[in-house]
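Sanity check record (used in CI):
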Amino acid sequence: MNAVIIAVLVMLVLSLLRINVVFALLIGALAGGLSGGLSFADTITSFTGGLGEGATIALSYAMLGGFAVAISRTGIPELLVSGMLKLMNKDGKATRQNLVKALIVLALLAMAVFSQNLIPIHIAFIPLLVPPILHILNELRIDRRLIAAVLTFGLTAPYILLPYGFGLIFHEIVYKQMKLAGLAIEMADITKAMTIPVVGLLVGLIVAVFISYRKPRDYHTVTTSIEGTVQKKASTKDVVVTILALIAALYAQVETDSMIIGALAGILVLYVFGAMKWREADEVLTEGMRMMAFIGFVMITANGFAAVIQATGAIDPLVASVSDLFAGNKGIAAFAMLVVGLFVTMGIGSSFATIPIIAAIFVPLSLEFGFSTMAIIALIGTAGALGDAGSPASDSTLGPTAGLNVDGQHNHIWDTCVPTFMHYNIPLVLFGWIAAMTLG
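Expected output for Sodium:proton antiporter:
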């Protein structure tokens, strides 16, 4: 069996058995390296060599966590929560509760979408907005799997479809890698080709919201560390300074292309203008880093996992075997290529990192099968995006878990990864296949 398949399967099975994701990635990397012909020492060397690639991401999330907790100390989240409480029923009217539910879902969906294209802060908004409203979600008996599905849709669909913010980065990677593989395309064609696959994601979202997680679910109300530290009410000055901090963080991140500098700029604005006290700096940053530490360790480990997979050289044979096995059958070949992309992204945890791995092989392979340029774009874009929703190592699943599990009642694998995998990867395969077979 191919080393990539072995590594990913081991990682996924261990994760589903509730083994810590970091250990699942490590054991999966060892299984993949050894089955791929690497010695134990070479596997460890490749793994540790790849860890450094995730250090910047880990520090970025740690700083963003500190920024989120710093803002929570200003009382802004409590102001948001009090506004929602005013909308909630005081006399048991179900219509008012349904209104609040809809507003919460729509607000979180809008923030997730904006975080990819309009205000490129990625998952930084989740630890800021989600933990303070958990007790409201509890009172409304909202299934947190629904919130995870909504957030993950907003973190994935926009960058796949729209060439703005993180979407521009994704589209540029697809454009450049296809050109390097010998097929020049127009950037504008990527949005057109990815429209049908994104419709699949929308179908998954609709199913999750209106069918799968429509029923109420009960949780125990627990005072989280963030909620417990919000003691003061936000003044007009706090609101103004917080807005300035958010603007400063966004501006610094865009100008420097660094989430670390963006978070640092936001934190400095809060302290310089007195919204937070300097003596609280250490406590705030430590609390924020602790909240986001899980994401950081998983992302670092995932980079080691990816390094081992690439060191085995098993990705090329995996794709080549697809060509040999389904030569002459265009429909099955398209499906098989999408599944290969799913396996690679599920293991690596990054669609952005998957595109360079598969584009060099998928372009000539697709041309050999007679696919059109638009169909090839759809195949590569969809194959790269597959697995981002549902992967234990993806920040599109780690982010929602970080916000929803601050009180220990939301499991990363069974409450975020499995639901998002079922609702997004399955329709994405289907609609990606339809796009590949119908685009001329």
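The chain has one domain: 55-231+292-439. If this sentence no longer matches the regenerated tokens, the check is flagged for review.
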